[in-house]
């Protein structure tokens, strides 16, 4: 019986470690998804506010307001990624 259970003694701790690492990976992904979701919701709300402001200013100002909104909300890491 020792011959059959011997390899399991070293395999089980390795499998347990693998499962723990996989769980941590999924937990981290969930946090990242929640962060991105909240960022997108905030951007969407800001975009709606910018559109309302542009509409109040008149048709000639809409493009300028939306360009300003886009550049002010674009994170610095995004604009510097091509450098």
UniProtKB/TrEMBL annotation:
InterPro entries (UniProt xref): Rx_N
Keyword Phosphoprotein belongs to the record: no
GO molecular function: nucleotide binding
Swiss-Prot/TrEMBL GO biological process terms: defense response
Key words, A-Z: Leucine-rich repeat, Nucleotide-binding, Plant defense, Repeat
A Pfam family: Rx_N
Domain of life: Eukaryota
Domain Disease resistance N-terminal: residue ranges: 9-53
Record-stated family: Belongs to the disease resistance NB-LRR family.
Name of this protein: Disease resistance N-terminal domain-containing protein
Organism: Panicum miliaceum
